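Section: Multi-chain targets

For targets with more than one molecule, the full set of components is provided together so that the structure can be written out for the assembly as a whole rather than chain by chain. Components appear in the order listed by the source. The example entry contains two components.
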Amino acid sequence: MKQENNKAHKFGMVIDLDKCTGCGSCMVSCMSENNVPFKEDESNKKDSITWMRVYKLTNGKSFPDTEIVYLPRPCQHCGGKGDHGHSPCISVCPATATDYGYDTGIVSQIYTRCFGCRYCMGACPYHARYFNWWDPKWPEGMEKYLSPNVSPRMRGVVEKCSFCYHRYQAARDTAYYEGRDDIEEHEYQTACTTACPAGAIVFGDLNNPFHKVHQIVKPDPHPDTRNKHVIGKSRNPKVFRLLERLGTNPKIYYLSEREWVRKQGDNYLDGEWDEIKNHHGSSSHG
Amino acid sequence: MKVDRRSFLGLGLGAVAGIAVSPVGLKLTDDSSIWTQNWPWTPVPVDGEVTYESSVCSLCPGSCGISVRKIDDRPVKIEGLADYPVNDGGVCLHGIAGLQYLYDPARIKSPLKKNGDKFEEISWDDAIAIVADKLADIRKKGSPEKLACIADKEQGSVSGLFKRLLKTFGSPNFYTMPSLESYLEVTAAAMHGEGKTIAFDLENSDFILSFGAGIIEGWGSPVNCFKANASRKERHAKLYQIEPRLSNTAANADKWIPIKPGTQADLALGLCAVILKNNLFDSNATANFKGGFHKLAAILQKNYALSKTAEITGVKAVDIEKLAILFAKAKMPVAVFGHGRGDGAQSLKELAAVHTLNCLVGNINKKGGTFVLPKNEYLEFPDESMDSIADAGFAKSKTGRYVNQLIEKVNASSQPAIEALFVYNTNPCYSLHDPKSVKQAFGKIPFVVSFSSFLDETAKEADIILPSHTFLERLEDVPSCAGLAKSVVGLTKPVIEPVFNTKNPGDAVILIAKALEGSIAQSFEWEIYDECLENITSGIWDSLSEDGHVVISDGPGESTAVNVSFLADNPVTIQAQGDYELTLIPIDNMRLINAGTTASPFAIKTVSDRVLKGSDIVIEMNPLTAKGLKDKGFAILTTPMGNARVMINLNEGMMPGVIGMVEGLGHTLNTKNMSNKYVSNKGVNINDLIGPVIESGSGLDAAFGIKAKISKA
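Its structure, encoded as tokens over all components, is:
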């Protein structure tokens, strides 16, 4: 145990798409936790700030064989090629406004450093970053519900999901105060995870074999045999990541029993999927 | 000094070198980035001590336990309360966004009096005096029964106080809005006797047959249902969903059975017929049947033979037969009714037909089946003191059976059928079918008093508004209902001082009663509502106030008789009104609210742009129905009740011939002084396009959808 605790954390998530109902609790919990503003018209989804966004997927078949699945998408907290911390957004930020936490695996965003060039938004393959085109405005009096744990952002900066980093800090402070070295799994959970009424989101330390997220994902610690840049590929055949072959090494894993859902995790050429669908993280090495 | 070429270059280079190594440039850039982001108008939330307070959310009948995180005395976040018997830590998006209601721009900040087409602020004393004077006049005229009240529900102490005020005043005219709970009670009354309600033990059932109930779209106690649904996988329980549209529930179910809109009752009876024919019913259970079981069986064999049912419903005969056998042979099957959220229009034929399935397989009062429970009665009001006027008025019959009939009567009579109306915690001028006629009726009632917290469509029609605290500002008992298998009473507690000059509606009622004096005042002996609540819940108050909730029962009730006389009379199936080719049906979306409170700005923000785009509502239709209409194009949707400009969403999950429109949009919460632009003037209120169709016998508005046509805009 002691040894596990000294290892760097790698916080991540696995989302069970078969359980997700698309209810939107995670989105609102995130907005409320992180002081995300709102404006009169939020139906232009390109400028609607939603750190957590729920996408609707369909299998494309016609009535009555149509199927729907919802896919919640927070920031993927990419480890970058080879999982070395060179996430797409971090590599392009001229202001070091976004950085990689090597002790947590969390991609940070420091609003006061950001000067709004939006290179990171262009670099992010997951559209997980949002730009403040306007100053946030709350109706009179409503600013009283804002949480002091997260600074409200101003016009001209980029924001995104932080894995509720302030909750990690709070948990760490408590542990320190109580003279503990490390935090328990339940002490640090993101706002979306705790809000999900279906229990579809599991959050924890991917490096910690005692954490549920590790047990579901069973990440392969070695580079993928097909692509050496891919680290942590799941050994669970029902688990996938979005655009995994890019080598961005996201820490958000998705779980689905349905093959068509797993196939929508990436864009495949004809015939490619059949070749790849049974290729999982290998348990042979390690 | 002579500047030659050499010294010029030297000076130049020196300057370049100087600027390059000087920190001034960097410092200026840094400063400018700091200054450009130093927006004094961006709020800086004040830090303070963190505390958590437990309460119960009463935004919907779900009654979930919530934990409110506070910084000093400011609530900053609502989360689910772990271990609460209803929701065990889970919470829905509307509950999480609850804090937005506190500071809602459409909140009513003090009592209001209508003057012409404007509202004027008045004091509480004046407001109560005006209401009391008006009521005293009505009483003097000798027609106390002409005071009516429409509330959201019958349960709970606040509704109890309204009822008590009406009774001691001398009026039987207390109405509740249609809701899943009201349908459960209507069904129980028709089949098991008065004073009962029905609950569904979804979390223990191994086969849930849902006739359009949006198990994960806000039906019942939403979070409880979410959890029951999510645990299906581990429990190996199946969910079969029967409805014309691939809803989220249908998509999440093990099987979706598309069915022609409005024919669910027929399918349920068809399934009953198969079960009877193949002797798959529980004979112990059918021994309890009365009211013409053999007559019903004969009708089923005659009118609901497989091929006939298949023709009516559009479901294949083999599938009907398979489904009936699967249902009957499951260990703990349960059939569930209620389209979408379950609070929309509904026919007793359908309610009874679906529940007959439960009765036939003998799951009544068994684990995993349906529980027939006595209505949650934990309140002990002291006896009222009634004077002769009260006795005479209260003995008269109600003006209408349900709200719809009340509205109809008011509109039909030339003399005021109702002299004064109280509206509490509900918005009939928005959420009943054909709201225009509801508003017309409100216009004909000389004196309307609203107890709303928000200036919604109904409050706007009021003469006096006595604004209520929101659920975060008041003490109140919240009984669970809406089909929850456990009877739980929760206690909503104030987590913040009232933000505006509002009152607990219970206090407003007590003040009105006291101002009316005499026997009415005597029946309201409490100084304040909080004292009243403690007094009338005395049997459970200690644990209620200490634990925040009391579980009254969490298991099946006693065995009960089943009366099938309503179905044995072979009632007709309600047809959609009109003769256009297509059928418009309502869609319940978890992210929107149809009845009661309006969705919050956060909830509206989560709504897909394939549901709401700008201020345009998006309707769903199958590409086969579109006939030249393009995805994302505009069209005019026409029904016998009116028309609306809509955007098109071609959706393969929609049965051809059916158009779906979401419920809960098209609010108009704006007046000259107040507006909630985040929520208001977005899309169309589907209720404007649908008129009530009353089922004979039951008196229920049973219009599930309406006939419609669509043409290019």
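Chain A has nine helices and eight strands.
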